Batch of 2 targets.
Target 1
Amino acid sequence: MLKLKDLISTISKLEQVCTPQNESLQLVINRTYVENNWLTKDNYWDAIFNWLPLLSESELSQFSEQSQFSNNPKQVGIIMAGNIPMVGFHDLLCVLLSGHIAIIKPSSDDKYVIPYLLEALTIVEPELFKHYKIVERMDNIDAVIATGSNNSFRYFEYYFRSIPSLLRKNRKSIAVISSEETEEELRLLANDVFDYFGLGCRNVSLIFIPKDFDFTKVLDQFMIFKELSNHNKYANNYTYHRALLLMNSAKHLDTGFALFQEKRDLNAPLSCIYYSFYDDISEVYDFISEQEENIQCIVGKNIHADTVPLGKSQMPELEDFADNINTFNFLNSLKN
């Protein structure tokens, strides 16, 4: 088995693997897109390029200080989601840097790239093969980390009831406008809403706006994503929900690629974004408090202690643990 410093050194070699000149990586990304049109090639490269600066030896060494490297490694299952590129990569990093063995079940929607990256690293460091397995079924594991829908959460909860588990379900993100944002900052907010088609839990689905704020200022900047209407699956969602709103005579704003409805609710359907006016910021704080377990990110300009800067919701740092649950703490508890 590799020591922590050797694992860090090996993982940092991904910078050499993840280049557009790597034809093998291009092939698995292309194959992923052919089987799942939501994971476009551009989106996949965006995700990879967001990850690479975080995978230097210095970044990984600092991050791993939260881990208690195990001399008694457990087999830790990782059930990965496939809604956006490389969703389970952070969990994989945490398991490897904790000294445990990662038993990986990739999502059927994104099943080629992460296994390829591990295989490429194993060529660099053959001992890495002792630290992970790619599987179809989760058998003989000591603990599990699973990410999925609310329905799959209930299944995971029952199926893995006898072992330690870190389970995640659906969450959504919100943005809070203060009226002090520049045009450029509102343009950055468009990325928080529409990156990866809005499919991620870190994508904004509800925007809070000060009363009397001119919402068309937001819509004008969001037009940089109008090309989404050319994506067949996204366009189908837009057309379907537009028809529903029209049939129900529901008041809404239509940009030709996205539908905006005044509603204080996190669960906006794909291609739809909810917005809500507030008189006082305390209303927003109350909503955050009530919906704490359902909110992944709060995007804005110093609105809240946990605020993510505009444009950064889909660019998390290593320390940005999903659901604000420190994965290392869970893995450290398996030490004995």
Target 2
Amino acid sequence: MISKPKAVCLLSGGLDSSTCLGVAARDGFETYALSFNYGQRHKIELEAAARVAAHFNAKEHRTAVIDLRAFGHSALTAEIDVPKGRSADQMEHGIPITYVPARNTIFLSYALAWAEVLEASDIFIGVNALDYSGYPDCRPEFIDAFTRMANLATAAGVEERTRIEIHAPLMHLNKAEIVKLGVEVGLDIGLTHSCYDPTPDGGPCGQCDSCLLRAKGFREAGMIDPVR
């Protein structure tokens, strides 16, 4: 039997990263899911990540513990109110306070380390440059730059034993297209969690940027979100 190529897949438990894991599984990779407990106020997403990793039969699912609260300056890691009820125009301009400084750079660095240990050449990340709320580390320029750095920074790259490729299959999809792709790759969307500021019982607030973008995606896809 021919073994599957290995891929490290960043998995938050949200719609985008869960769909991305499904794409990796569909495309024939043996998946290694990597999540982070980084001091985020919405830790319930880690429960969703565990459910999604099991759903897609990930070979392994690890949660790295780091504490980005040490730096703060984000509504996700500090005592700063999560913006609610913003219009589409407001979300399209500027970098919101829910941006966590250097988060994807840090996450991809951890994924790169694990990939090197696994002797894997592929990393999957569910970033998106259309409905992305202005995050600078979700742009194609960032992914391209990190890929170049990754192949300079590892022993495997320097010794030309492998070449790291970072896959961002959702990069140019809008949220409706991501919803449809999730269904196509077999994601049980009811397992996911997207809200930045969940209610005490773990439900979505319905008004943060993430909730509003998710609702927009389902509405434009003509589908009903099972997580409401």
